[in-house]
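Worked example 4.2. Below are the chains of a multi-component assembly; read each line carefully before continuing.
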Amino acid sequence: MNHIKKECVAMLLAGGQGSRLYALTQDMAKPAVPYGGKYRIIDFPLSNCVNSGIDTVGVLTQYQPMVLNEYIGNGQPWGLDRAHGGVHVLPPYETALGKSWYSGTANAIYQNISFVDRYNPEYVVILSGDHIYKMDYSKMVDFHKEKQADATIAVLEVPWEEASRFGIMTAKEDGTITEFAEKPKEPKSNLASMGIYVFSWSKLRQYLIDNENDEGADKDFGKNIIPAMLDNKEKMVAYHFDGYWKDVGTIDSLWEANMDVLDPKVPLDLLDDSWKIYSRNPVMPPHYVGPQSRIENSMIAEGCEINGMVDFSVLFAGVTVEEGAIVRDSIIMPNTVIKKGAVIEYAIVGEDCVIGEGAHIGERPELIEDKSQWGVAVIGHHVDVSANAVAPPKAMISKDI
Amino acid sequence: MASMANVLGLIFANMHEQTLPELTKARAMASVPFGSKYRLIDFPLSGMVNSGITQVGIITKTNYYSLMNHLGMGSEWDLARKTGGLHILPPYGRENAVMYRGRLEALAGAAEFIHESNCEYVVMTDSNVVANIDIKPMVDFHEKNGADITCVYGTGFYTTERAQTQTVLCVDENNTVYDVLARPSISGEMNIALNIYVMRRKFLEELIRESECRSLYSFETDILQHKLHDYKIMGYKYNKYFEVIDSMRTYYKATMDMMKREISHEMFSLDTPIYTKVRDVAPAKYGIDCSVKNSLIADGCIIEGTVENSVLFRGVKVGKGAIVKNSIVMHGAVIEEKSSFIDAVADKNVTITKNRTITGSVDFPVYISKGGVV
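Applying the procedure described above to all two chains together yields the following structure tokens:
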């Protein structure tokens, strides 16, 4: 088959487990975790690609790929069902030389060099499925061209006190990166890498091969490829991004990022027609709000039926809140049923759960004296909580209780 | 038992528009917005798809841009297919075509499409019946009875005024149709034709040829009435929820029916969903101090005021202190701060400006046309 040349191909690393989301990533990869009332995390990088004019995307999967595979399908919801290019799911595979899992981020791309080569691109954009943000990658590619760089790394200014949690870049005035330190104890800069890279493909291709031949290497972009390129004085520049960007790798950050959609002061406009976030839409009727319900400060998706009280919460498609039930400061994922009189506070409840009558999930922080005992309670996917059961703050429930 | 893959679906997109002049001014009957996120055609089309039909032709006449935009390639209905799938059949599709006056002339325009489908049966419907219809039992009924034409009807209590826009069927205990009354001035419990017909394809093709020779164009008058005794015409009774949209009042009533839980659960059953065009908008947002009771709300709405007994389409904004009551508000309409919109229907992109009050009555809801600013 003849492949038409593409200037730019995106490779989306979606194989990670997201182990710090515990019960929520037990049976799905992190990029498939629901976010924002109707999305999954991967909708953001995929929609960004489409809106940036990138129509060829490889999605590298490994950990629990079923939900993600089914979700991406032929790419039609993102307009990525294309005659040339489009979205392709790339799982690890067996070759004549044996089987090999993706052993690191760089190894995952290395194992798919032949996929990228088919499109003979000038540039490759490396993305991850871990963040919520809207970004025009085409501007970053333009910047890469303008600077005649070999690698461009998107960076964000973070508060100095948080800098040691990130990969930190030190850059000159003109953007040239002079130093890179992964989670430094004493950061020299507050420019954090967002894990978004643009590489000139011919350059990256060689570094991937060299890295692969180095047996002791971790086969990782942050640990090997970026330092090696810096050592060899390749032209590397930092691309500043100042929009909304949120890592959703932990329970707290996932909860906060969902609450951000309710805050009018947060600059993440999901209703902006000029930069739509696409998603696979469930086939459901509009949501119904019953005569006894009270809803305030919340986001409610289609297919919901609300007869109870909902405040400061995000409800995904097909959620039922029965009479007398209370949902506050919580995130309820698709098709979950909250039975009569149940109370959910400061919690994340997974998909397809049933919370029994009178059950109590989570607790308000002001009611807990020892603040170290307080945290968001989590109910994993497909969990039944029996009537009057209690899940305390910080609970992590992945089996029926 | 008939295989549904062997049934061709035909939907008439423009019938009965004269009964709903306001809403069909700039659009076909088939693309009249309904039920917070749908268009009327979603109901017959989803019914056909859920029944296993894989080939559907949409017969259009005028004003069909919004309909084509809505249907696209048919992928939302799983009808973007290599064989069969969805076909929009515009008028003037062949040489010497005329702007058709009735169903028979419209069918003549689609004769080639019907022939080439090579299906054994044809089911044809209009676009103004709101129901979640299973077509398979109708085709089985037709086959079992060896009928020439099966007419689907539903029973309901009708007043003189409403009967005048309907065809009423008289059906005996053997399900044979023995009389067909067009627009009678009667009231009471009646068998109202839902304008869903089942025929063998070859029979229909013969009917089209015959009618063309004799310049016949009305299916109801020239076939059902005048050929009542020549053909075996049977009546199939439809027992589930339906509403025929034949006036602003019935449009309003059917919309309000969607808030009744039993009807809604039947209409939007998870096993036989109603499909519609995907619009990729974020879920609805509820602000501080808003109050919403007994209402249907689509994605993309931003509600900061009060909404009661109402249906809000996608992207409707209700400002602080505004009141929307017993109303239908279509896509993109804005009810600004402190205004009231009661017993009324707002078409797409209407704006009700600050402090204005619009009040109709449940029997005669006020209608604000597309893009209107009040």
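Take a moment to check your reading of the output against the notes. Chain B is about 20% helix and 30% strand. The interface with chain A takes residues 35-37, 75, 259, 261, 264, 267-268, 273-275, 278, 280-300, 302, 307, 311-312, 315 of chain B (CB under 8 Å).
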